[in-house]
Design a protein that fits this description.
Blueprint lengths: L4 H15 L16 H13 L8 H9 L37 E4 L1 H5 L19 E2 L2 E2 L25 E5 L5 E13 L18 E8 L5 E2 L3 E2 L6 H13 L7 H15 L4 E7 L9 E12 L16 E8 L10 H11 L5
Parallel strand pairs: 1-4, 5-10
Antiparallel strand pairs: 2-3, 5-6, 5-8, 6-7, 6-11, 9-10
Helix pairs in contact: 1-2
């Protein structure tokens, strides 16, 4: 088989990259962790083919963060709302794109919702960007303040999405959520930890719900209410999503609340705080979250919890953690962080 000179150089570069022991390096953003393998590969290609422009590390970083936020069809809508396509090299706001004209969409129910922000042209609406605005926290979890464009709209800190407005999100700018990852060890019939034969590491399980909106399996989290502490949100959302507190009796809720308080009060570990690559994101409204791991080493405490899918969930189960998981938005990356924290199989 004949291989062109350029093809041979590419194969040689690939061989060199694959032969080097490469670890992971942290990118500057709290969400995105780039592999040094990918960066080295681009460096090799750039060196071998200097005439071909290579994307900058920041461009690669933002593109990798912005995959689900650039999905072609906006989610959860019966009528098809399509984003315009944003190429990887046009994600950054600093990259000039004179004819960028994103689809504009804010769901009608958002415009009428009492919990949502008004439109920006409302003379009575004077938001305090990057600040605590009354009870509404408009401060991003990202270290850098988000910018405001010439029209007074907050700009997604991770770049263009192909859609402006708020979509189905209530707040202009950051929409804060909290996600509790409740875990235990998978055990066999003898009560011993189940160990993965490939990695030699014990297998974790976490409480997982199937979203009722068609978004697939997810961590049972939700939005932080105005003035609410994240710790309160974590407990409330877990009870609503995984214990069906909205449909339970007053007596059942009192008993469940006591059990959850006992478990959550032992303390959780923060595994992530920042931007979320979420299909609901737009140029002007985006999801951010705090992810906490609440682990039950013996499994005795969570065994007492009466788990039941909430009214906006289709199903609930203890799901084994591993890299083959398919989860909503950025939830897979959050669960991976939990697995590494607990030194579990991934």
């Amino acid at each position: 088989m004949l291989i062109s000179r350029e093809g041979g150089r590419l194969l040689a570069a690939a061989a060199i990259v694959s032969s080097v022991g490469l670890g992971r390096v942290s990118a500057r953003c709290t969400f995105c962790t780039l592999t040094s393998q990918r960066q080295n590969w681009l460096s090799f290609v750039g060196a071998l083919f200097p005439s071909v422009a290579s994307p900058s590390p920041v461009c690669i970083q933002l593109a990798s963060m912005h995959e689900k936020a650039r999905c072609t069809v906006y989610p959860l809508r019966a009528d098809q709302i399509e984003r315009i396509k944003v190429p990887d090299d046009k994600v950054e706001w600093s990259t000039e794109w004179a004819d960028y004209s994103p689809t504009e969409f804010t769901a009608p129910f958002v415009l009428k919702a009492p919990w949502a922000d008004p439109e920006l042209n409302n003379p009575e609406f004077e938001p305090k960007w990057n600040s605590l605005d009354g009870k509404v926290n408009r401060v991003s979890y990202e270290p850098k303040k988000y910018e405001i464009d010439a029209k007074g709209k907050p700009l997604n800190p991770c770049g263009r999405t192909g859609l402006c407005g708020r979509g189905i999100l209530g707040r202009w700018g950051p929409n804060h959520a909290a996600d509790p990852v409740v875990t235990r060890w998978q055990r066999d019939s003898n009560g011993d930890k189940v160990v993965n034969t490939d990695t030699g590491l014990p297998i974790l399980e976490f409480v997982c719900i199937e979203r009722g909106d068609g978004g697939g399996w997810a961590i049972p989290g939700g939005m932080v209410d105005p003035g609410e502490k994240v710790a309160v949100t974590l407990k409330r959302e877990f009870m609503e999503e995984a214990m069906d507190s909205t449909q339970a009796s007053k007596e059942e809720n009192a008993q469940n609340s006591k059990l959850v308080d006992s478990f959550f009060s032992a303390g959780g570990t923060e595994v992530y705080k920042g931007y979320v690559d979420d299909p609901r994101n737009t140029d002007n409204a985006w999801m951010e979250t705090v992810v906490m791991n609440f682990h039950d080493e013996t499994g005795n405490k969570v065994g007492n919890l009466k788990l039941k899918a909430g009214d906006d969930a289709k199903n609930l189960k203890w799901m084994a953690i591993g890299k083959s998981l398919t989860l909503y938005a950025s939830h897979k990356s959050f669960v991976e962080k939990v697995a590494k924290l607990q030194k579990a199989h991934w």
